[in-house]
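We were asked to recover a plausible sequence for a given structure. The inputs and outputs are reproduced exactly as logged, with field labels preserved.

PROBLEM: sequence recovery
POSITIONS: 143
GIVEN STRUCTURE:
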């Protein structure tokens, strides 16, 4: 495995690599240590990329590897062997947890505890149920 194959594995065959992918290469290949941190990775990425660009090419990636080797105080070939010995990008997913208050209907409150709001009103079926036609006195008060 070569530097080119590492670059292609992490970029999925694209011609350029962005900063997030560059940090992922360093993380997945276990390059980070006390002497070389994620901040250093961002600074080296910014140093090797072209002005105004957001990505680096394979040649710039190799320049970045030389700067990483200097920063870690190890040889370039040792760093390359560390990168090539890695299995490639590591992808991890998260398992969705059950949302307690949404999924457990026994915890519902209010109108939703009784089946939810209804658009049908059983109590009012004609005008006589809405109006009070009982007699009133002169002032409008009920007797």
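RECOVERED SEQUENCE:
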């Amino acid at each position: 495995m070569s530097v080119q194959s590492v670059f292609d594995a992490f970029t999925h065959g694209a011609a350029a690599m962005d900063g997030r992918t560059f940090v992922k290469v360093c993380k997945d290949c276990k390059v980070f240590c006390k002497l070389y941190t994620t901040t250093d990775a961002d600074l080296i990425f910014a140093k090797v990329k072209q002005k105004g660009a957001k990505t680096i090419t394979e040649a710039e990636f190799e320049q970045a590897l030389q700067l990483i080797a200097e920063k870690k105080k190890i040889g370039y070939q040792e760093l390359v062997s560390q990168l090539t010995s890695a299995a490639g990008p590591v992808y991890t997913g998260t398992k969705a947890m059950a949302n307690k208050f949404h999924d457990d209907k026994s915890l519902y409150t209010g109108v939703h505890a009784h089946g939810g709001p209804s658009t049908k009103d059983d109590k009012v079926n004609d005008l006589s149920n809405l109006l009070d036609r009982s007699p009133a006195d002169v002032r409008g008060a009920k007797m």
